[in-house]
Write a structure and sequence with these properties.
The protein is α+β, with helices and mostly antiparallel strands. The chain is built from 13 helices and eleven strands. The relative contact order is 0.09.
Protein backbone atom coordinates (compact mmCIF):
# COMPACT_ATOMS: atom_id res chain seq x y z
CA UNK A 1 0.00 0.00 0.00
CA UNK A 2 2.77 2.44 0.96
CA UNK A 3 6.50 2.32 0.42
CA UNK A 4 7.69 4.98 2.83
CA UNK A 5 10.49 4.98 5.38
CA UNK A 6 9.47 6.63 8.64
CA UNK A 7 11.99 7.87 11.21
CA UNK A 8 11.47 5.66 14.24
CA UNK A 9 13.28 8.03 16.59
CA UNK A 10 10.58 10.69 16.32
CA UNK A 11 6.88 10.64 17.18
CA UNK A 12 5.04 9.70 13.98
CA UNK A 13 1.28 9.92 14.18
CA UNK A 14 -1.48 9.28 11.66
CA UNK A 15 -5.19 9.72 11.24
CA UNK A 16 -7.80 8.33 8.90
CA UNK A 17 -11.21 9.40 7.65
CA UNK A 18 -14.28 8.57 5.67
CA UNK A 19 -14.36 10.69 2.55
CA UNK A 20 -17.03 13.02 1.18
CA UNK A 21 -17.67 10.72 -1.78
CA UNK A 22 -19.00 8.13 0.69
CA UNK A 23 -16.00 5.81 0.54
CA UNK A 24 -14.80 4.59 3.89
CA UNK A 25 -11.19 3.69 4.58
CA UNK A 26 -12.41 0.84 6.81
CA UNK A 27 -15.80 -0.10 8.20
CA UNK A 28 -15.91 -0.05 11.99
CA UNK A 29 -12.58 1.74 12.06
CA UNK A 30 -12.55 2.60 15.76
CA UNK A 31 -13.39 -0.98 16.75
CA UNK A 32 -10.61 -2.32 14.51
CA UNK A 33 -8.08 0.17 15.85
CA UNK A 34 -9.01 -0.79 19.41
CA UNK A 35 -8.72 -4.47 18.59
CA UNK A 36 -5.24 -3.87 17.17
CA UNK A 37 -4.21 -1.99 20.29
CA UNK A 38 -3.66 1.29 18.38
CA UNK A 39 -4.27 4.35 20.54
CA UNK A 40 -6.69 6.73 18.85
CA UNK A 41 -9.32 9.40 19.43
CA UNK A 42 -11.74 11.37 17.31
CA UNK A 43 -10.84 14.81 16.01
CA UNK A 44 -14.51 15.79 16.22
CA UNK A 45 -16.21 16.72 19.48
CA UNK A 46 -19.93 17.15 20.18
CA UNK A 47 -20.79 15.86 16.72
CA UNK A 48 -23.28 13.31 15.43
CA UNK A 49 -22.20 9.78 16.38
CA UNK A 50 -22.15 8.67 12.74
CA UNK A 51 -19.89 11.61 11.87
CA UNK A 52 -17.51 10.75 14.69
CA UNK A 53 -17.47 7.09 13.64
CA UNK A 54 -16.41 8.01 10.12
CA UNK A 55 -13.39 9.96 11.28
CA UNK A 56 -11.05 11.67 11.18
CA UNK A 57 -9.24 9.83 13.98
CA UNK A 58 -5.87 10.68 15.44
CA UNK A 59 -3.81 7.53 15.97
CA UNK A 60 -0.82 7.61 18.32
CA UNK A 61 1.52 4.99 16.92
CA UNK A 62 3.86 5.17 19.91
CA UNK A 63 1.38 3.96 22.54
CA UNK A 64 -1.13 1.15 22.99
CA UNK A 65 -4.83 1.88 23.26
CA UNK A 66 -6.02 2.03 26.88
CA UNK A 67 -7.77 -1.07 28.23
CA UNK A 68 -9.72 -1.74 31.42
CA UNK A 69 -6.57 -3.19 32.89
CA UNK A 70 -4.85 0.14 32.31
CA UNK A 71 -7.69 2.16 33.83
CA UNK A 72 -8.32 0.07 36.93
CA UNK A 73 -6.25 -1.73 39.54
CA UNK A 74 -7.24 -4.24 42.22
CA UNK A 75 -8.04 -2.83 45.67
CA UNK A 76 -8.46 -5.32 48.42
CA UNK A 77 -9.82 -8.78 47.72
CA UNK A 78 -13.09 -8.02 45.94
CA UNK A 79 -12.96 -4.61 44.27
CA UNK A 80 -11.10 -2.34 41.88
CA UNK A 81 -10.49 1.41 41.77
CA UNK A 82 -9.80 3.73 38.85
CA UNK A 83 -6.20 4.79 38.66
CA UNK A 84 -5.67 8.50 39.14
CA UNK A 85 -2.75 8.78 36.76
CA UNK A 86 -3.01 6.60 33.69
CA UNK A 87 0.10 6.46 31.52
CA UNK A 88 -0.39 4.72 28.14
CA UNK A 89 1.91 1.76 27.62
CA UNK A 90 4.67 2.38 25.03
CA UNK A 91 4.28 0.57 21.69
CA UNK A 92 6.65 -0.33 18.87
CA UNK A 93 5.81 2.23 16.13
CA UNK A 94 6.92 -0.12 13.36
CA UNK A 95 4.54 -2.83 14.58
CA UNK A 96 1.74 -0.25 14.99
CA UNK A 97 2.22 1.08 11.46
CA UNK A 98 2.06 -2.43 10.04
CA UNK A 99 -1.13 -3.07 12.01
CA UNK A 100 -2.63 0.23 10.83
CA UNK A 101 -1.89 -0.46 7.18
CA UNK A 102 -3.48 -3.87 7.58
CA UNK A 103 -6.71 -2.16 8.68
CA UNK A 104 -6.85 0.66 6.12
CA UNK A 105 -8.04 -0.36 2.68
CA UNK A 106 -7.56 2.98 0.96
CA UNK A 107 -4.18 4.58 0.23
CA UNK A 108 -5.59 8.09 0.61
CA UNK A 109 -7.02 7.34 4.06
CA UNK A 110 -3.98 8.19 6.18
CA UNK A 111 -1.81 11.25 6.57
CA UNK A 112 1.32 10.79 8.68
CA UNK A 113 2.56 13.71 10.78
CA UNK A 114 6.23 13.73 11.76
CA UNK A 115 7.94 15.83 14.39
CA UNK A 116 10.70 15.83 16.96
CA UNK A 117 10.33 14.95 20.63
CA UNK A 118 8.46 18.21 21.29
CA UNK A 119 5.52 17.11 19.10
CA UNK A 120 3.45 15.31 21.69
CA UNK A 121 0.16 13.61 20.94
CA UNK A 122 -1.73 16.36 22.79
CA UNK A 123 -0.02 19.17 20.85
CA UNK A 124 -0.77 17.48 17.53
CA UNK A 125 -4.34 16.75 18.61
CA UNK A 126 -5.00 20.43 19.33
CA UNK A 127 -3.34 21.47 16.08
CA UNK A 128 -5.41 19.09 13.95
CA UNK A 129 -8.59 20.12 15.73
CA UNK A 130 -7.79 23.66 14.60
CA UNK A 131 -7.53 22.48 10.98
CA UNK A 132 -10.93 20.77 10.89
CA UNK A 133 -12.64 23.89 9.56
CA UNK A 134 -11.51 26.60 7.16
CA UNK A 135 -13.15 29.80 5.99
CA UNK A 136 -13.54 30.45 2.28
CA UNK A 137 -14.22 33.66 0.43
CA UNK A 138 -17.77 33.91 -0.88
CA UNK A 139 -17.16 37.19 -2.70
CA UNK A 140 -13.90 38.02 -4.50
CA UNK A 141 -11.82 40.61 -2.64
CA UNK A 142 -13.95 40.62 0.51
CA UNK A 143 -12.46 39.66 3.89
CA UNK A 144 -15.84 39.72 5.59
CA UNK A 145 -18.12 37.70 3.30
CA UNK A 146 -16.93 34.20 4.10
CA UNK A 147 -18.29 30.72 4.74
CA UNK A 148 -16.98 28.10 7.15
CA UNK A 149 -16.56 24.62 5.66
CA UNK A 150 -15.01 21.28 6.62
CA UNK A 151 -11.39 20.83 5.56
CA UNK A 152 -10.71 17.16 4.72
CA UNK A 153 -7.08 17.22 5.78
CA UNK A 154 -7.26 13.46 6.49
CA UNK A 155 -7.70 12.76 2.78
CA UNK A 156 -4.42 12.35 0.88
CA UNK A 157 -6.13 13.32 -2.39
CA UNK A 158 -7.18 16.64 -0.87
CA UNK A 159 -3.68 17.22 0.45
CA UNK A 160 -2.25 16.68 -3.04
CA UNK A 161 -4.58 19.37 -4.39
CA UNK A 162 -4.28 21.94 -1.60
CA UNK A 163 -0.71 21.98 -0.29
CA UNK A 164 1.06 22.86 -3.58
CA UNK A 165 -0.98 26.06 -4.01
CA UNK A 166 -0.75 27.49 -0.49
CA UNK A 167 1.34 30.60 0.02
CA UNK A 168 4.10 30.49 2.64
CA UNK A 169 2.06 31.85 5.59
CA UNK A 170 -0.82 29.40 5.01
CA UNK A 171 1.58 26.52 4.38
CA UNK A 172 3.43 27.23 7.62
CA UNK A 173 0.11 27.53 9.47
CA UNK A 174 -0.97 24.14 8.11
CA UNK A 175 2.23 22.32 9.15
CA UNK A 176 2.26 24.09 12.51
CA UNK A 177 4.40 22.17 15.05
CA UNK A 178 5.21 19.31 12.66
CA UNK A 179 8.42 18.89 10.69
CA UNK A 180 6.65 17.20 7.76
CA UNK A 181 3.63 15.21 6.62
CA UNK A 182 3.59 12.07 4.47
CA UNK A 183 0.67 10.89 2.35
CA UNK A 184 -0.08 8.71 -0.67
CA UNK A 185 -2.85 10.03 -2.96
CA UNK A 186 -4.44 8.17 -5.86
CA UNK A 187 -2.57 7.92 -9.12
CA UNK A 188 -4.47 10.82 -10.69
CA UNK A 189 -3.24 13.08 -7.87
CA UNK A 190 0.37 12.03 -7.96
CA UNK A 191 0.32 8.40 -6.85
CA UNK A 192 3.66 8.09 -5.08
CA UNK A 193 4.33 8.86 -1.45
CA UNK A 194 4.55 12.65 -1.05
CA UNK A 195 6.52 14.35 1.72
CA UNK A 196 5.67 17.98 2.51
CA UNK A 197 8.33 19.56 4.75
CA UNK A 198 7.86 22.53 7.01
CA UNK A 199 9.62 25.77 6.13
CA UNK A 200 13.07 26.13 7.65
CA UNK A 201 12.96 29.89 8.15
CA UNK A 202 9.41 31.28 8.41
CA UNK A 203 10.60 34.50 10.10
CA UNK A 204 10.12 36.63 6.98
CA UNK A 205 6.34 36.61 7.37
CA UNK A 206 3.66 36.38 10.03
CA UNK A 207 2.06 32.96 10.43
CA UNK A 208 -1.73 33.46 10.65
CA UNK A 209 -3.58 32.35 13.75
CA UNK A 210 -7.03 30.83 14.04
CA UNK A 211 -8.78 28.95 11.22
CA UNK A 212 -7.11 28.78 7.84
CA UNK A 213 -8.69 31.02 5.20
CA UNK A 214 -8.86 30.30 1.48
CA UNK A 215 -9.10 33.61 -0.37
CA UNK A 216 -10.26 33.76 -3.98
CA UNK A 217 -6.70 33.39 -5.30
CA UNK A 218 -6.23 30.20 -3.27
CA UNK A 219 -9.62 28.83 -4.33
CA UNK A 220 -8.84 29.52 -8.00
CA UNK A 221 -5.44 27.82 -7.70
CA UNK A 222 -6.96 24.74 -6.03
CA UNK A 223 -9.63 24.59 -8.74
CA UNK A 224 -7.06 24.91 -11.53
CA UNK A 225 -4.88 22.15 -10.01
CA UNK A 226 -7.91 19.89 -9.85
CA UNK A 227 -8.91 20.74 -13.43
CA UNK A 228 -5.45 19.96 -14.80
CA UNK A 229 -5.28 16.61 -13.05
CA UNK A 230 -8.83 15.70 -14.06
CA UNK A 231 -8.03 16.53 -17.68
CA UNK A 232 -5.59 13.61 -17.70
CA UNK A 233 -8.35 11.17 -16.76
CA UNK A 234 -10.75 12.71 -19.26
CA UNK A 235 -8.09 12.47 -21.99
CA UNK A 236 -7.79 8.74 -21.26
CA UNK A 237 -11.59 8.46 -21.44
CA UNK A 238 -11.65 10.23 -24.82
CA UNK A 239 -9.05 7.83 -26.20
CA UNK A 240 -11.26 4.90 -25.19
CA UNK A 241 -14.58 6.22 -26.53
CA UNK A 242 -13.39 8.16 -29.59
CA UNK A 243 -10.28 6.40 -30.99
CA UNK A 244 -10.95 7.73 -34.49
CA UNK A 245 -10.76 11.32 -33.23
CA UNK A 246 -7.77 10.88 -30.93
CA UNK A 247 -5.53 8.39 -32.73
CA UNK A 248 -3.24 11.04 -34.24
CA UNK A 249 -3.05 13.19 -31.09
CA UNK A 250 -0.21 13.06 -28.56
CA UNK A 251 -1.03 12.68 -24.87
CA UNK A 252 0.00 16.28 -24.25
CA UNK A 253 -2.18 17.60 -27.06
CA UNK A 254 -5.19 15.56 -26.00
CA UNK A 255 -4.84 16.64 -22.38
CA UNK A 256 -4.66 20.25 -23.52
CA UNK A 257 -7.78 19.78 -25.64
CA UNK A 258 -9.63 18.16 -22.73
CA UNK A 259 -8.62 21.02 -20.43
CA UNK A 260 -9.94 23.58 -22.91
CA UNK A 261 -13.27 21.74 -23.11
CA UNK A 262 -13.47 21.54 -19.32
CA UNK A 263 -12.86 25.27 -18.96
CA UNK A 264 -15.67 25.91 -21.44
CA UNK A 265 -17.98 23.71 -19.42
CA UNK A 266 -16.96 25.36 -16.15
CA UNK A 267 -17.90 28.79 -17.52
CA UNK A 268 -21.31 27.33 -18.37
CA UNK A 269 -21.80 26.18 -14.76
CA UNK A 270 -20.68 22.54 -14.93
CA UNK A 271 -19.20 21.21 -11.68
CA UNK A 272 -19.34 17.37 -11.84
CA UNK A 273 -16.55 15.19 -13.20
CA UNK A 274 -18.95 13.03 -15.22
CA UNK A 275 -20.48 16.13 -16.81
CA UNK A 276 -17.02 17.40 -17.75
CA UNK A 277 -16.27 14.08 -19.45
CA UNK A 278 -19.56 14.07 -21.38
CA UNK A 279 -19.14 17.67 -22.47
CA UNK A 280 -15.60 16.92 -23.66
CA UNK A 281 -16.83 13.96 -25.68
CA UNK A 282 -19.57 16.00 -27.36
CA UNK A 283 -17.14 18.79 -28.17
CA UNK A 284 -14.51 16.42 -29.53
CA UNK A 285 -16.93 14.55 -31.79
CA UNK A 286 -19.13 17.48 -32.76
CA UNK A 287 -18.88 20.34 -35.27
CA UNK A 288 -18.84 24.12 -34.93
CA UNK A 289 -22.56 24.16 -35.63
CA UNK A 290 -23.10 21.55 -32.93
CA UNK A 291 -21.14 23.72 -30.48
CA UNK A 292 -23.50 26.62 -31.13
CA UNK A 293 -26.51 24.43 -30.35
CA UNK A 294 -24.87 23.13 -27.18
CA UNK A 295 -24.19 26.64 -25.95
CA UNK A 296 -27.75 27.76 -26.74
CA UNK A 297 -29.21 24.95 -24.65
CA UNK A 298 -26.74 25.46 -21.80
CA UNK A 299 -27.55 29.18 -21.53
CA UNK A 300 -31.32 28.97 -22.11
CA UNK A 301 -32.88 30.79 -19.15
CA UNK A 302 -36.19 29.00 -19.66
CA UNK A 303 -34.60 25.63 -18.79
CA UNK A 304 -34.78 24.97 -15.06
CA UNK A 305 -32.26 22.11 -14.88
CA UNK A 306 -28.74 22.52 -13.53
CA UNK A 307 -25.77 22.73 -15.89
CA UNK A 308 -24.71 19.19 -14.95
CA UNK A 309 -28.17 17.83 -15.77
CA UNK A 310 -28.27 19.76 -19.04
CA UNK A 311 -25.05 18.06 -20.15
CA UNK A 312 -26.59 14.71 -19.21
CA UNK A 313 -29.68 15.38 -21.33
CA UNK A 314 -27.58 16.60 -24.27
CA UNK A 315 -25.54 13.41 -24.16
CA UNK A 316 -28.68 11.24 -24.02
CA UNK A 317 -30.14 13.15 -26.97
CA UNK A 318 -26.95 12.59 -28.98
CA UNK A 319 -26.93 8.86 -28.20
CA UNK A 320 -30.59 8.53 -29.25
CA UNK A 321 -29.84 10.30 -32.53
CA UNK A 322 -26.97 7.91 -33.27
CA UNK A 323 -29.16 4.88 -32.51
CA UNK A 324 -31.96 6.17 -34.77
CA UNK A 325 -29.49 6.73 -37.60
CA UNK A 326 -28.42 3.07 -37.62
Amino acid sequence: MWVCSLPTQTPTLAFAARHDDGASCAEGLSTKLTGAGIAHRSLYLKADSSLIAGGPWLADLYHHHLTDDDLYEPYGDNSVVMRRNVVPRPADPVAQIEALLGILTDSRAAVFWIGDASLTEEILYQHLRGLNRVTIATEPGSLFKTETVTFRHADANVMAQVLPVLDEPRYARFLGPALAVLFTPYEEWGGDCIRARNLKNPLSFTIPKGPLHWDQKTLDAISETRMVRLSWSIADYLRDVAPDKTGDMSDEALRGRALDYMREAKKLGVTHDVAYAKWSYMRLTGTSADFGKLQTFMTDASVSHSANDRVKYLMEFQINQLQEAR
